[in-house]
Amino acid sequence: MSSRLVGVGVGPGDPELVTVKGVNALRAADVVVVPVMDTGERGRAEATVLHYVAAEKVVRVVFALNERTDRVRREAAWDAAGERVAGMLRERRSVAFATIGDPNVYSTFTYLAQTVGELVPGVVVETVPGITAMQDLAARSGAVLTEGTEPLTLVPVTAGSAVLKEALAGPGTVVAYKFGRQAGEVAEALRETGRLDDAVWGSALGLPEESVRSAAEMDGRPLPYLSTLIAPPRRGGGRGGKL
User: Fold this and answer.
1) I need a surface site. Which of 4, 11, 99, 227 has the fewest CB within 10 A?
2) CB atoms < 10 A from the CB of 165, how many?
3) Going by C-beta distance under 8 Å and a sequence separation of 6 or more, which residues neighbour residue 135?
4) Where are the alpha helices (DSSP H) in 59-182?
5) pTM
């Protein structure tokens, strides 16, 4: 039988937001891999997984999660991680990889699957969707992501604040990921486009240190790296006005 690599979305941090299918996939796998930074501290994916599977089944694999400037170092880390997971797949029938959010949305899993696919011919790659941070923040803040014919734009601010400004100048709701280090530039972009008052941001969703606040409270100081922003459009015309 072919070996299977399953990317499992475990949500943004709250263990109760892992789907039933996700829990079943974690428990069914021979081993569950969780990504960790080279500093070694426990990440959100690992903390969530440990609510559902025994610690002895979990394998921590170092990824260059925080490396954005040294491409050689980053590529070496990816190759090492891919080789390690490929080795597990040669010895075991199934490996699950736990990733925060969804495995197909800005996830470490996509790079891992590509690397492993080249190292283990015939490996079957599957994904189990997970709740995203924007969905969780919308639920916790009461923000409505879309109505009627509105588009939804998701922007990683690691691509630069200019990308965010362009999105904010357009229609529909704009969601920004990973914007904490550029919080000052993000607040200014919201002001310039008239979206500051209706926008909300959140971090550590579902965790004891959770913060959900109005974007108008941002004072320019850096926020946690994994902060999420929702900037809805101005809505008028009453109920169903965007239909």
Assistant:
1) 4
2) 18
3) 145
4) 71-91, 108-119, 133-141, 161-168
5) 0.90
